[in-house]
Amino acid sequence: MKEFHSFGWYAARIAPHLPKQAFKPVPSRLFGGLAYFLIIIASFVTIIFFDTNIWINLLLSFILGSSFAGMGFLGHEILHGTVVRKPWLRDLLGAIAFWPLTTGPKLWRKWHNLTHHVHTQDEENDPDAWPSMQKFKESRLMRWMYRVPFWIRAIASFASLAVTFTLHSMKMFTVYVKEFNPKKQPSVWLEAVLPWATWIGLLVWIGFGKWFFAFLLPLLIANFIVMAYISTNHRLNPLVPVNDPLANSLTVTTPKWVDVLHFNFSYHTEHHLFPGMSPKFYPLVKEQIKQKWPERYHEMPFGKALVALFITPRVYYKDKEFIDPHKGNLFGSLGNGMNPKNLSIKKSKLKLR
């Protein structure tokens, strides 16, 4: 891709071709959240009050983890203002939806809406962007990690998806809490502490055995599902000097029933073009993009995107390629040589120092 355009440039050319209702909130999306809420309550009651065997508990943990993730996707939608517009109601519903993932609405809007969306794939300003060779050289921990054989790193990286969202959320709290107005900081702290107080209180009440199946294992499962999407949203794309969603974002394709369960979270390029639009209308946005800029648009089956993520390193070389510094192997990024059907490797003279 030789030139970049801002998300506003694309949006201005697509918006006239979309129905007016696409730009209005869709409160009916809350019915999906209600369904997840009832499933969570029913699963909690079964685990806590019945002596079910381990296989039933494992099944319920998977159902809970999937529901936690689904609530998180809806919370993301709510806090973009696409479900309800009243700030107090938006934050209340967003807090409930993110409660299982223990992330407060004020922190999320600061970290995600106001920073990540504004500076997507900017190494310095996007809190979710992966580092370049320069930052790699400055990090003793990363230099040590990249001495580990690639296949061990790849497996460990995928396993870490089960904790990454929770840990990154905690890190973002420490980064951004001090940037809030001092008068608002107590509420930001309260939003961070209350969910954990709830889950730790549940532990004290029901004991570790039941708590493991009711919360801890579901949290790990939810982390993995959420991070499987987040990791493919941008981590196969280049770092960019302009916030161009067609260059810095990837839409993954999933079966229709998965899109229903996950509130169309797979349409990520579309989301970065219209973050204030309900994902219900993202298929219409996708049609417009593919009509106007088919050569710029990046989409990939979800499974292939995860495979591509698994076999490529996460250090950027000159913004457009990925490098394994220890071996000197180079991989192209999306739009810069990456072919999902044939992920080729170029040899480089760069070595870990």
TrEMBL record:
Entry-linked InterPro entries: FA_desaturase_dom, Fatty_acid_desaturase
Native species: Pseudalkalibacillus berkeleyi
Residue span, Fatty acid desaturase domain: 55-300
Record protein name field: Acyl-CoA desaturase
Bilayer-spanning residue ranges: 30-50, 56-76, 150-167, 188-206, 212-230
Keywords: Membrane, Transmembrane, Transmembrane helix
